[in-house]
Amino acid sequence: MNNAIGLLIAVSLAMIAGVLNWNYLETKSKEIEMVSFVAIDEDVSLKPGDTFLEKHLVALDVPQKRVGFLNESAVLYEDRFTVIGLKAVREYQTGDVILLQELKTPPAELNLNPNEDAVWIPVDGGSFVSSLVSPGDMVSFYVAAPSAKTSVPAADPPEASDDQEWDFDGGEKEKSNQPMIFGGSETIGPFRIISLGGRLGSIQVSRASGVSSGQENVIGIAVTKVGDRYEPNAERLLQRVNSAGFRKAGVLLHPKSK
Questions:
Q1: What pLDDT was estimated at residue 134?
Q2: DSSP letter string, 36-99
Q3: Which end of the chain, N or C, is more open, meaning fewer C-beta atoms within 10 Å of its C-beta?
Q4: What CA–CA distance (Å, rounded) separates 67 from 37?
């Protein structure tokens, strides 16, 4: 009888130990469960514009509990075929993880809201680094500010030209054949960039897609319509650009919104 009880106790303890051990192993297996992301294979180096091929890619295994932000921002290895055939937008080295935000193509058209028009402003290319600026950035322009009119001695009337119209102060137009003297400068803005020359996206995406932009010293901006006119800043800028004394505008780049 005592032997039977002892055997029963031993079997019960063994079963309890087995259950506890199984729970422990299950917990540990969850801790080391891996998630695989797409990364660049060993001895592979890609430059912007290179095409992703299957031989360039490898699975990078990350423990589930260490995944963090990669779960939302990186490409899963099981989805690697969505990457193959696309072009790199930056330089990749061995082990680099491919992020979803890097799989972009240039926009097909200007990004304008229903109440906006596009206006192109020629800027001073000598003091403006276009590769550091992208559509979506906010900029202001500094232009020569009108200061005063000067008297012009009586002379022969101008050849086949009407009196010039000046409307620098947003008031009633005034006719005068007297030149305008510009002194100092004023800043007008901000405006949202929608293009730089023919570039409608970042410089990296454009290069990767083989898009030739050209004329990046001509900035396209979105201006808001107010009735049959434009917002005051846009009206003022257009007056300066269309004035006889206009010189190519300088560019002030504003910090990106948080």
A1: 87
A2: EEEEEPTT--B-TTPBP-GGGEEEEEEEGGG-TTHHHHB-BGGGGGGTTT-B-SS-B-TTPBPB
A3: C
A4: 10
Residues 6+ apart with CB under 8 A from 152: 177, 178, 179
What letter represents residue 91's amino acid? E
Residue 137, pLDDT above cutoff 80: yes
Contact assessment for residue 178 and residue 150, using Cβ atoms and an 8 Å cutoff: yes
Contacts for 29 with CB less than 8 Å, ≥ 6 apart: none
Q: Quick one: which H or E segment has residue 220?
A: strand 218-226
- H or E, element range at 24: helix 2-31
Q: What count of Cα atoms within 13 Å lies in the side-chain half-sphere of residue 241?
A: 18
Phi, psi torsion values for 175, nearest 5 degrees: -90, 135
pLDDT tens-place string over residues 150-190: 444 444 444 544 444 444 344 444 444 445 444 578 899 99
pTM exceeding the 0.70 threshold for the entire prediction: no
